[in-house]
Amino acid sequence: PEYFDLMQIKLLAGRLFDSRDNAESQPVVIIDQDFVDKQWPGESAIGKQVRIGVAPNPVSGWLTVVGVVSNTHHDQVDNPELPTMFQPISQRPARFMTVMARTDGPPMSYGNTMREVVQSVDPNLPIYWLRTVEDWIAIGMFTANILSTLFAIFALVGVLLAAAGIYGVLAYSVSQRTREIGVRRALGALDGRILGMVLRQSVWQLGIGMSVGLVLGLLVSYALSRVWVLADIFDPVMFVTVAVFLTLTAIVATLFPVIRAIRVDPMEALRYE
Q1: How crowded is the C-beta side of 42, counted as CA atoms within 13 Å?
Q2: How are beta strands 63-69 and 49-50 bridged, if at all?
Q3: What is the widest separation between alpha-carbon atoms in the chain?
Q4: Over the stretch 179-209, which tens digit does the pLDDT of each residue have?
Q5: Phi, psi torsion values for 85, nearest 5 degrees
Q6: Residue 107 to residues 19, 90, 128, Cα–Cα distance (Å)
């Protein structure tokens, strides 16, 4: 009966389980708000009945809804939330069960105490998988963490390859304009204006590429979110970080060759092949 208080699941309507719900009493069930929204939208679920299983051979008889609670994620962390129902264990006993306790200190320090309490009831009852909730979440996140790490590694390699490609292309493109820069300087163009002109052209080219990349990135994120719940369709921090990194790469790739070209004597630049 104290499960909902222990897990801080809020009661929205009706009542929680209590001593009235035993093996001889009317079978009852508590459902979450998601269940109500899908089955009886806009209606009160209290007093309605449900059965578990598929007709014509359900695995349970009719269960009367006595309470509605807030939505809670009970499956693996990377799975979508599903409509949920709760039954009192006195009406649906199980051979395997999980006992949860909220502690005032480090949870694992209460392990021996919990074992002693259970063994005082039944010395033959095995106690295992004693873990904190954080440990269970980490176990549930194992696959997601592996995939996240692999995606992060591939993404980092992709960004580095993109940066190397941008640097190589822009640096070569600017170095090919050494003669043009020499002509402009011979005609009296200021170094600052030459630098600004080349930078604007490079940033313009980069802007086109990043715009296309942004659209493709959003499409890929959307596709991932359809098959992986934890995928974020739009992570502004990540998108901005990548954009700033590639922009800085483009600036460096343009700046150094232009500075080298400006330092060359105009007459030497005019003879540059």
Answers
A1: 0
A2: antiparallel
A3: 104
A4: 777 777 777 777 778 778 877 877 788 888 8
A5: -130, 150
A6: 28, 27, 15
CA distance 64 to 46: 8
Asked whether 261 and 182 are in contact (CB, 8 A), the reply is yes
DSSP secondary structure, 33-102, as one string: HHHHHHHSTTS--TT-EE-SS-TTS-SS--EEEEEEE-----S-TTSPP---EE--TTTS--SS------
**DSSP secondary structure, 174-196, as one string:** HHTTHHHHHHHHHTT--HHHHHH
Q: Are 97 and 89 in contact (CB under 8 A)?
A: yes
Tokens of 8: 């801080």
Give the C-alpha separation, 117 to 154, whole Å.
50
Q: How far apart are CA 182 and CA 188, in angstroms?
A: 10
Tens of pLDDT, residue by residue over 110-162, are: 888 888 988 899 998 888 888 998 888 888 778 778 887 898 899 889 888 88
CA torsion angle 161 167 168 169 (round to 10): 110
Residues 49/59, Cβ–Cβ less than 8 Å: no
Sign of CA dihedral 59, 65, 66, 72: positive
